[in-house]
Design goal:
The radius of gyration is 25 Å and the shape is elongated. It is an alpha/beta fold and about 325 residues long.
Length: about 325
């Protein structure tokens, strides 16, 4: 079986939910040009009729728009990666394929590209269409900024990591430094083999900029444009890694037993305690105290979690 490498992903190894591993059973035939631009037709306009497609024995109708002037293609190899777009995720492709299978129909989607065919919107659609041998419509747009790309998508699809990688790709120095620090800290935490939980982007922002409110994530702190407003900071500050250790340990080993109300309050409480006592606190002592089989009790505010740490530290 021939491997298809699209945007750096080998689809031979992808499993599509309950459908199972993709097997390439047939090729699109009789395509003389990768992009179809229908000729100007006289009135009335006649819609383009697309043949059904089949995937793992399941047949699906292909439905398009009645406007015959929109260019379309079956050839996904013509598309290129757009550097400022977020990384592709298997689950995004699976969702598109399973949705088409569930309704028994591929409703031809739009892929928005630059003049040189870099995909600005629809990168998961392109990969799903490649797997299903299905067509997509092509719309050419001016090159979008990271903010414009994200604004055009559903905001919940973009994690803090996605947005940070997007800004780093634009060579924004603060974003590049923050992304490098994020990756280095999590690699170091993993290499210690102490069961630390992975640090998140909002947690790193809160630690680096001494602002507990960043724990709430991008949505509660002005959205993805937050990365444009961040001032440079000292990446080599040893306290950043030590606080990251405390966070990673507490999130893994010190959570309350049972139901927790707003777990982000624990993170805010930890930061409040550390920053309120920054001049005198011994971070190694705090980490050792947390190692002594300590568990927070459920509280309803960051201040109450901070109080628990004060009692522990004494």
């Amino acid at each position: 079986m021939k491997k298809m490498n699209l945007f750096g992903i080998i689809w031979k190894n992808i499993k599509i939910g309950r459908i199972g591993q993709f097997e390439k059973e047939k090729q699109i035939k009789n395509i003389s040009s990768p992009i179809f631009s229908p000729p100007v037709l006289s009135s009335p306009l006649l819609p383009v009729l697309f043949p059904p497609i089949e995937f793992n024995g399941i047949k699906m109708l292909v439905k398009g728009f009645t406007n015959p002037y929109i260019p379309w293609t079956y050839d996904m190899s013509i598309f290129k990666k757009f550097d400022c777009n977020r990384p592709e995720e298997n689950k995004g492709v699976k969702k598109i394929i399973n949705s088409a299978l569930n309704i028994g129909c591929w409703v031809i989607p739009f892929v928005i590209v630059t003049d040189d065919m870099r995909v600005q919107l629809g990168q998961h659609t392109v990969i799903a269409a490649e797997i299903l041998h299905a067509p997509v419509y092509i719309i050419t747009s001016v090159e979008l900024t990271p903010e414009e790309i994200i604004a055009r998508e559903i905001c919940t699809r973009w994690t803090g990591n996605n947005a940070l990688q997007t800004y780093a790709a634009t060579k924004m120095e603060t974003a590049e430094n923050l992304l490098n620090l994020f990756n280095n800290i999590n690699i170091s935490l993993k290499n210690e083999k102490k069961g630390y939980r992975k640090l998140t982007i909002p947690q790193l922002l809160a630690i680096s900029y001494k602002n507990p409110h960043y724990i709430g994530g991008l949505a509660t702190n002005g959205g993805i444009t937050l990365f444009k407003t961040l001032a440079p900071y000292n990446m080599l500050d040893e306290k950043i890694y030590k606080i990251a250790q405390i966070f990673a340990h507490a999130q893994k080993n010190c959570m309350p037993i049972g139901i927790t109300i707003r777990p982000q309050y624990i993170s805010m409480g930890i930061l409040k305690f550390i920053f309120d006592n920054e001049a005198t606190i011994d971070l190694d002592k705090l980490l050792n105290k947390l190692n002594d089989d300590f568990h927070f009790t459920v509280a309803v505010s960051p201040e109450k979690y901070c109080k628990q740490l004060q009692n522990l530290y004494k």
